[in-house]
Amino acid sequence: MVSDAQPPAEAAPPAEVARRVRAARAYAGLSVYDVANAIGLGAQTIKRIEAGRRTPRSFEIWAIADVCGLPREWFTADFDALCRQAERQAALLERVEDRLNALTELLAGEGEEEVRRPA
After folding, report:
1. pLDDT band for position 111 (50/70/90)?
2. The pLDDT value given to residue 1
3. What's the Cα-to-Cα distance from 34 to each of 25, 38, 59, 67, 94, rounded to whole Å?
4. Are 19 and 56 contained in the same domain?
């Protein structure tokens, strides 16, 4: 069972969580004081979290996500893995598009010639 005293097991490394907290706050256009007041923490606590000097508890991360208008997964998602998956999908779509273009050209060529059918 995950305790509120520890980050969830799937949480990003502390330095990455700190970076994402800063990015979330910037995305929302909020000051450190805005976030602190909204979630009931001191501004110094938010500053320590953003500096990577304090590991936030899971409920604090969830509160920061809510205040910043982001999903909780923002703090746990493996963006490198998502990028790799997107690159694989893009390559697959490119191959599909190439095949569709080849079929379109093949069909367009048949339309220009008279196709003889047995009578």
Report:
1. low
2. 36
3. 9, 6, 17, 9, 45
4. yes
pLDDT band at 4 (very low <50, low <70, confident <90, very high): very low
Q: Can you spell out the DSSP letters for the chain?
A: ---TTS--TTPPPHHHHHHHHHHHHHHHT--HHHHHHHHT--HHHHHHHHHTSSPPPHHHHHHHHHHHT--GGGGT--HHHHHHHHHHHHHHHHHHHHHHHHHHHHHHHHHHSPPP---
pLDDT tens-digit map of 60-75: 999 999 999 999 888 8
Q: Which amino acid is at 72?
A: R
* Residue at 104 is within a domain: yes
Domain region containing 89: 78-119
Say if pTM beats, i.e. exceeds, 0.90.
no
